[in-house]
Amino acid sequence: MTVTDTGGLRLTGLRRYPVKSCRGEDLDVATVEPWGLTGDRRWMVVDPSGEAVTAREANRLVLITPSITDSGLLLSAPDIEDLDVDRPASGPLVEVKIWDDRLLARAADPVAGDWFSGVIGRSLRLVYLDDPRRRPVNPAYGAADDTVSLADAYPLLLATEESLTQLNTWIAEGPRSADGPLPMTRFRPNLIVRGEDAFAEDTWRRVRVGEVVFRVVKLCDRCVLTTIDPVTATRTKEPLVSLARHRRWDGKTWFAVNLVPEAPYGSGVPEAPYGAGVPEALYGSVRVGDQVEVLETR
């Protein structure tokens, strides 16, 4: 969807990532749940011990395109036949590890693990987080009842077009200019916003996007995943070189902000059935073109 510039802050892009570290899907509208957009990062690739495998070490994961279907996923990748994977509604729960978090997830059909193993070249399994209420966010920044799916740390990530433009200007002026300009997909945000000064989002504390209010819990520190070209899976030095020159403090580099959703307009949160019977709190929907309002700054 093309967004006409009518002034003010607007939501210009909306993306979800069905499988952690794989390619994302562009959406026109999405439902917001307590742990992120519906369908966002509910699947994850793990090694035989259950530890998360991401594109940081398995770069070719960014070449895999997962699409959500009524029954589960359709997986596509270069030089291999597509695979339909059913969402596991029952079957074994296995312990998985993502960073410092250990939790239970449903094991997908072993055929899916074999498919990923063929693409990546090592032994892998695919798991599905049937109940995202199992994983709390970091209590240092979130509330006691905040939860997250299989995203790195928080339910949603927001980035602005103006901040990317400024970053690409720094890249063009720097020693690694051939690496740029970079697309927004390098940073894997869920919400893309236009209409403010570059890095104004650093100061936001609460924002409303369409009918949903979000807390901005912290800036996002960036890692080597941003150096992987999502089209070719090759590595570059940017954006970390330029971020280190202009956006480095506390020993880290920073781009975009992490969000936790609140109930729409402070109202009660309805519940509806979801997936394998997990009660689902629906916080409302966001749509490309929605007005974005900064409610509170820090």
From TrEMBL:
Transmembrane feature ranges: none
SUPFAM superfamilies, alphabetized: MOSC N-terminal domain-like, PK beta-barrel domain-like
One Pfam family named in its UniProt record: MOSC
Domain spans labelled MOSC: 130-295
InterPro entries per the UniProt record, alphabetical: MoCF_Sase_C, MOCOS_middle, Pyrv_Knase-like_insert_dom_sf
Protein's recorded name: MOSC domain-containing protein
Classification of source organism: Bacteria, Bacillati, Actinomycetota, Actinomycetes, Propionibacteriales
